[in-house]
Specification:
alpha/beta, Glucose Oxidase, domain 1, 2 domains, 15-stranded mixed sheet
């Protein structure tokens, strides 16, 4: 009864929002002029409506959904709403037991008051303040963890044999606390740590994972804005509430995962007679050796541990070819965000309109449009809203491990995450598309849509490893996220830059809210572009593959072998 009521209220609200907003004037030139498309794609593209996308974004990011925190009430309402939209569109359920829901067993961990961390240097004991000086986490799923250990400066904390790099060489880190840098050794050579583009070795997730594999007790990451690609407020908002992970995750976990402010780390080293800047420079040179420090850490971490189930929402449209319909193209977007921070004063709801009600609303509208087209592509299309992206890509990770279609039969995943509402885009960005054999098709389609392909604006941020397509890539499926560039029809650069800057400043903040003045034709054009890409991928004679030598090529071969 409760779910029925929720769905009814949701539908009533969304209908009224749509009527209140009215239909914006919308340019649909792309749907009529794109040449060479499969017939069904052009018809589906004509069904895309910016007003429906706008209304979905408004509802999904409303205060009623309380920031869609993983495992919270608002997240469950969002999942029910998405499933209802899939059902109304006529999609077939592709979740568990004939439903649209794929249950994702999870564990939520909240760092509780009473948590403390003291750092003792040769000169003093520094009692670090949670959220101000440091952010302290414990991913062991234990209610209490005590970590005491000597500190080793381990540089970037990377073991990369293909680059002849091993920060762990010659040092025993078992039971130690590792002080390390986020990011990776600087390089301008694209064949060496990706040049300016960040590889997975530079991601904070890798740092914790590798340290746990090596037997360390804990890791303290030094936060430097230029290296992390975001400021301390993002660290606070992203890791201060409940953090979730998969209940069935058996990988080793650290009892202490922490970030520390740059100046705190600088003082720790200065008290030890060392210069942080020189240490950072040394850590980027070949032959760097880990440095034991005359510093000890004493951490007491108190956790509230909660077991719960979240859900991915999965709907599908069967392909038209009797043989090829067992293979599929996936469209994905994450619907979760950061929820509510009860301890915060003022507006404490992280509504997540851009991140990622925008991408979720696009996937919903693509599903409606394709379902309304009388001609379907040869391979099946799956439309998926995943959970727990903000917690570490866990929803898509679970989906990758338990796909409704074997990974070897998934030809491509197209992911949508934070698409700005600025108008008609003249540029598209899709970091990683050129790593796949789909690249020529992508480039041709972009040209047909009158959009120039732009490289990632900040390759040093490691964007390829920060969204849900990465979970598909790890199991061998060619995958990338598709977004816009920074040129929009009829708007001067200064105006666009101001809009995009304001959106960037709202990243993981309560100010990421629905904009009634936004121009949601952006999402409509990008949804049509996505439909064109999906139909083309679904009708190709052969499956999309990684280009030879790509880091995910081996995973694709494993999936194809069935091992």
């Amino acid at each position: 009864m409760r779910k029925t009521l929720v769905v009814f209220v949701s539908m009533f609200l969304i209908a009224n929002m749509a009527m209140a907003q009215g239909k914006r004037t919308e340019q649909k030139a792309q749907a009529g002029i794109v040449a060479g498309l499969p017939a069904g794609a052009a018809q589906a593209m004509n069904h895309v409506e910016a007003s429906r996308i706008e209304a979905d974004i408004q509802f999904l990011s409303s205060d009623l959904l309380e920031g869609r925190g993983t495992g919270a009430r608002g997240s469950d309402i969002a999942a029910e709403y998405i499933a209802t939209q899939f059902a109304l569109a006529g999609l077939k359920p592709a979740g568990d037991h004939g439903t649209f829901m794929q249950k994702v067993p999870m564990v939520g961990i909240t760092t509780e008051p009473g948590t403390s961390m003291a750092v003792t240097t040769p000169k003093e004991t520094m009692n670090l303040r949670q959220l101000e000086d440091t952010v302290i986490m414990d991913e062991s799923q234990q209610p209490v963890s005590d970590v005491k250990g000597d500190v080793i400066f381990i540089g970037y904390g990377i073991t990369a044999p293909e680059f002849q790099w091993d920060d762990y060489a010659g040092v025993d880190v078992k039971g130690k606390v590792l002080l390390m840098l986020v990011n990776e050794p600087p390089s301008n050579d694209p064949k060496y740590f990706g040049g300016k583009a960040l590889t997975y070795y530079g991601r904070w997730t890798y740092k914790y994972e590798q340290a746990a594999r090596m037997g360390a007790a804990g890791v303290i990451l030094i936060h430097k804005t230029e290296m992390a690609s975001y400021g301390w407020p993002v660290v606070k908002s992203s890791w201060s509430g409940e953090r979730s992970s998969l209940a069935e995750d058996k990988d080793p976990k650290l009892h202490l995962e922490a970030w520390v402010q740059l100046e705190i780390a600088r003082k720790m080293l200065a008290d030890s007679g060392m210069d942080l800047d020189k240490m950072i420079e040394a850590a980027g040179q070949k032959g760097f050796k880990a440095v034991p420090l005359p510093i000890t850490v004493d951490a007491h971490v108190v956790n509230d541990v909660r077991h719960f189930q979240s859900q991915n929402v999965i709907g599908m449209i069967p392909g038209s070819d009797a043989k090829l319909r067992q293979q599929a193209v996936f469209y994905t977007a994450h619907y979760d965000h950061l929820g509510i921070r009860p301890e915060m004063k003022g507006d404490n709801i992280y509504n997540g309109a851009l991140d990622n009600a925008s991408g979720t609303a696009m996937v919903i509208e693509m599903a409606r449009a394709v379902a309304a087209s009388p001609v379907k592509p040869k391979r099946s299309l799956y439309f998926v809203a995943v959970t727990a992206e903000e917690q570490g890509l866990w929803g898509s990770a679970y989906l990758g491990q338990h796909p409704p279609v074997p990974a070897k039969d998934i030809t491509l995943d197209l992911n949508y995450d934070a698409v700005p509402w600025v108008g008609i885009p003249k540029e598209v960005s899709a970091g990683g598309y050129d790593r796949t054999t789909f690249a020529p098709v992508f480039e041709k389609t972009a040209k047909e849509f009158g959009m120039k392909i732009m490289p990632p604006e900040h390759p040093e941020s490691g964007g390829y490893y920060r969204s849900d397509h990465f979970s598909f890539a790890k199991v061998g499926v060619p995958a990338f996220s598709v977004g816009t560039g920074s040129t929009f029809e009829g708007h001067p650069k200064e105006w666009v830059d101001a809009k995009l800057t304001k959106m960037r400043e709202s990243y993981h903040q309560p100010t990421d809210q629905f904009d009634p003045e936004g121009d949601y034709r952006t999402e409509a054009v990008m949804a049509r572009f996505a439909i064109a890409l999906g139909y083309k991928a679904a009708d190709m004679p052969a499956l999309v593959e990684w280009k030879p030598g790509d880091e995910f090529e081996a995973a694709r071969k494993v999936s194809e072998s069935g091992d």
